[in-house]
Amino acid sequence: MECRNLWKIYGKIVAVRDVSLEIKEGDIRLIFGPSGSGKSTLLRCLAMLTTPTKGDVFLRGECLTRPGVNLNKARARIGFVFQLIWLFHHLTALGNVELGLRHVLKLPKREARERAMQALREVKMEEWANHYPAQLSGGQQQRVGIARALAKNPDIILLDEPTSALDPELTGEVIDTLRDLAKEGITMLIVTHEMPFAREVADEMIFFDEGTIVERGLPELFFTNPSSDRARKFMERLIERRRRE
Amino acid sequence: MIFDFLIERFPLILSGFLTTVQITLFGVLMGLGLGILLAVGDLYGGKTISTIIKFYVEFFRGSPILIQLFIFYFSIPTLLKIPLDGLTVGFIVFGLNSAGYQKGYIKGAMESVYEDQMTAALSIGLSKAQAIMYVVLPQALRIVIPPWGNEFCSLTKSTAALLMIGVRDLTSIGKSIASWTFRVLETYTFIALIYLLWISVVMKILDILYDKVKIPGIEITA
User: Fold this and answer.
1) Which of B117, B134, B217 sits opposite A86 (nearest CB)?
2) Are residues A97 and A130 in contact, defined by beta-carbon separation less than 8 angstroms?
3) Which of B49, B66, B94, B190 suits a disulfide with B45, CB 3.0-4.6 Å?
4) Treating both helix axes as pointing N-terminal to C-terminal, what angle do B10-44 and B46-62 enclose, rounded to 10 degrees?
5) What does the DSSP 8-state code read for residue A103?
6) Is the per-residue pLDDT at A170 higher than 90?
7) Chain A residues close to B123, C-beta within 8 Å
8) What is the pLDDT of residue A243?
9) Residue ranges per domain, chain B?
10) Of residues A72, A87, A135, nearest to B127 (C-beta)
């Protein structure tokens, strides 16, 4: 997946400012940065859940920002995990994962069920398949959210702060799930502030502020010697917070 | 017995009751179908469609149902040169009228589940129409059951206006019996009891339905 010179402007507010980014198959990229810096908006633009004001998004060489592209088909190839989870309340865990397989990929009932169960197994939720979202903990819900994104075998999964709505214990179980996915070589772009996890799995870390990429590089760079002032301050604060915890 | 005169006329009363039931059920169901279309049209149809729907709703909510019955009963057959009997007019007007009200309930319910659920649905690759069909409506229609009960209640009672265009509904039959027998108090009390019983039964059924389709784990306390 790739984006070139991407802009998103709401009225007078520039949420995303001239961002270019390329993610290769099997890559795990991490985005971090202050709240309100446009990370979520960038992810939504990449998934074409909101239309960029300027610039182009490519998925396996196909331009998604060109007029006339079938966006539903494109979105079916991009997994998205939301910060506030957003499962379908009226469907069971299994139903949540199955819905897209049945109606987007048009799989026959049995095959859809098998694949949905497979996805739930990968996030260790198969025992909870018949529970409704409101009967699950936040961490379990988010794992179902990941299974929902994973089941359709997407080219890439975009995760928008998948753990920031969860307490530390629940965060742990979701991070474990993501670590498993990382081992399987699934392409992911993750917005997160879970630094130990980042250090462990990321191929590249991207520091994002005021709608644009301030600094990018290997995790070690950020943990030892970030070159920009803002990134250094932000890292110091994150590490400080972790020490207090 | 003092109620003998009513028991003798039981078949007549029953036929009136069935007419009332038919028109109400038809009206509420047609109103539901059309109401869903109007709500979806209003939310997604763009400005022109939205304005047309607004006029439609204002007409049916803003004028007495009796006037609506008169318009359809006296004007439409003359204008379009098609014969319409009172019963047909009853079906049509109550369906159209109820749709006007139900559109409001359904739209409100859709908006309450709409935004995050819609985004999530689009993110897995569903089209907008599919998202409405499989994600938004199933949740919205659950919420709409209690107001739907109110709608049923008021529609049932409004059918009494059908007497003015010659439909032999329950009220109309009651009026005839009262004037034949001069037993006004007993007759109308009995007729009122039938309405009351019928509405109570349906409300109970809706209560049970509401409980049955409730999403497990979610307690709606509103």
Assistant:
1) B117
2) no
3) B49
4) 150
5) H
6) no
7) 47, 49, 75, 78, 80, 82, 149
8) 78
9) 4-212
10) A72
Residue A45 belongs to a domain:
no
Q: Do B125 and A100 lie within an 8 Å CB cutoff?
A: yes
Sequence-separated (6 or more) residues with CB below 8 Å from residue A114: none
Give the residue-averaged pLDDT of A192-201. 88
Task: Report pTM.
Answer: 0.86
Tell me the nearest-neighbour CA distance from B46 into chain A, angstroms: 19
The C-alpha atoms of residue B125 and residue A63 are separated, in whole angstroms, by: 17
Residues on chain B touching A80 (C-beta within 8 angstroms): 123-124
C-alpha pair distances (Å), A6 with each of A15, A20, A29, A202, A204: 10, 6, 17, 23, 20
pLDDT over 60 (residue A99)? yes
Averaged confidence pLDDT in chain A = 91
Q: In this structure, what DSSP letter does residue A20 have? A: E
Average model confidence (pLDDT) across chain B: 91
pLDDT tens per residue across span A207-231: 999 999 999 988 888 888 888 888 8
Q: Do A86 and B126 touch (CB under 8 A)?
A: no
CA angle (B160 as vertex; B147, B164 as ends), nearest 5: 135
**Which CATH number applies to B4-212: 1.10.1740.10, 3.40.640.10, 1.10.3720.10, 1.10.150.20?**
1.10.3720.10
Q: Tell me what pLDDT residue B221 has.
A: 45
Q: Show residues of chain B in contact with A149, CB under 8 Å.
A: 123-124
pLDDT at residue number B222: 42
- Check pLDDT > 90 for residue A144: yes
| A168 within domain boundaries | yes
Contact B135 A99 (CB under 8 A): yes
pLDDT the model gives residue B219: 64
Mutation target vs A (from B115, B118, B124; most A CBs, 10 A cutoff): B124
Answer whether B117 sits within 8 Å of A135, measured CB to CB: no
Q: Is residue A163 part of a domain?
A: yes
Q: Which of A45, A90, A92, A140 is best to mutate for the B interface (most B CBs within 10 A)?
A: A90
Say if A146 falls within a structural domain: yes
Those residues of chain B that have pLDDT short of 70 are 1, 219-222
For A107, the domain range is 81-186
* Per-residue model confidence as pLDDT tens digits over A54-93: 999 999 989 999 888 899 999 999 999 999 999 999 999 9
Q: How many domains does chain A have?
A: 1
Which residues of chain A from 211 to 240 reach within 8 Å of chain B, CB to CB?
none
Q: CA–CA distance from A55 to each of A21, B117, B134 (Å)?
A: 12, 28, 33
**Residue type at B165?**
I
Out of A80, A89, A99, name the one closest to residue B139 (CB): A89
Total beta-carbon pairs less than 8 A apart between chain A and chain B: 75
Q: Is the dihedral of CA B157, B172, B195, B84 positive or negative?
A: negative
